[in-house]
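Re: the request from the purification team.
They wanted to know what the chain is likely to look like in 3D before they choose a buffer screen. I agreed to run a prediction and write the result into the notebook, where they can find it.
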Amino acid sequence: MQTGLSATKLGTWWETVRTSLWFVPTAMTAFAIVLAAVMVDLDRRLMTDAPLAGFFLTFTTSVEGARAVLSTIAGSLITVTATLFSITIIALQLASSQFTPRVLRNFTGDRSNQVVLGIFIGTFTYTLLILRTVRSARDDGTSFVPSLGVAVAIGLALVTVGFLIFFIHHTAESIRAAVIVDRAASDTLQLVEALFPEPVGEPADEATTWSIPAGEPAAVIAKRGGYLQAVDADELFELAAKGQLTVRMEPMIGEFVLPGATLASVWPLSAADEEVTGTVRSAFVTGPERTLQHDVEFGIRQLADIAVRALSPGVNDPTTATTCVDRLTEILVCLGGRRLPERARSGADGRVCFLARETSFERAVDLAFTQIRHFGSHDPIFAAHLVEALGRAAALVPRNRREPIVRQVAAALSAARDKIDEPTDLEMIERASRRVVGLGESRGDGSTDLASTLGG
């Protein structure tokens, strides 16, 4: 049974660490502790090393002055740090209520926020450690003033002032709707570019794509529940190729796996011993929430959630919803122009080793626009923009992938006819729909044409 950490598991762990608020501040605080020790040691050397006496005199200060400066810096920093945390929490609450709780990881994972908090906490820690080394002659008969350490503390305090100004600006920018939507879309686009395609083995031939061994498979059962965040397909493929097995992945990335549910089916039944079962189970990474590590649908869902929230009566922000529609169409155009990974992967002998469950283009289109279409069909301006955006996307994707987009246009037009009574408003949407006529023409495979819907 394999127990080592694979690249997929390490990537999942790093994603969790990267999007936390504790890692960077902790690392910078540790560096501040080391820096304080180094500066105190350097100050002691400066006091006893005659050749450096002239350099040392440049930083000399009194005991009372050093304590006053360090105490002021430490007291101010801890107060400002508490204020920064308060601002961060307010920004998180605003993003959660105004947009969607799914974007909170974008704020906690913002490297600028992490560095600013780390600078303030690290400088406070450094100043506190330097302060405790200051001694007067009446304390133990000898005085010690870490003058160079005090100078560095003053320099760090000035640096924190600059970071404070930057943090205020950055926080004000980061809670803007356009910035939040842009970051969610950019992260999803990067994931599309990284994962599509993501070959594992050689693509199986069409004749063997759905060919699986006869007989009942062995079911690998999940021991605990959680969202499926990633699957180590390399590990599963290598296991199947070496052991003459066929492994079929049952849940999709992003689905919630219940305890006792089947993670994978393994053929033949007799080969699924404890070692094979343990290896297969360890290849599935679950967690308490969905992440953008391998889950493209989660990125699409974030933007759809923001649009739906913007269309709600409580928020009533159709402009943000139209921005989400534009970025969703951008993602679909990018996804539509890529070769999606083959579901079945075969080894060198042509035998199917691994069957995955991958996101299809049709599923991505439905996930992106079904809810938005439902909640926005009563607004004529938004509905017209939705139809126009879908039409532009349909014109840019390959012809064999236009059908799901055309169906969304037809459904948007049908919903608008049901909910909008004003003829002028309805004509605006129908005029936008007519531009899509021809993009959904039948290809001889049973696909429907939008023209019949427009005539309804």
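For the purification team: Strands lie at 202-203, 218-221, 226-231, 246-249, 256-257, 262-267, 284-287, 344-346, 352-355.
Please add any questions underneath this entry.
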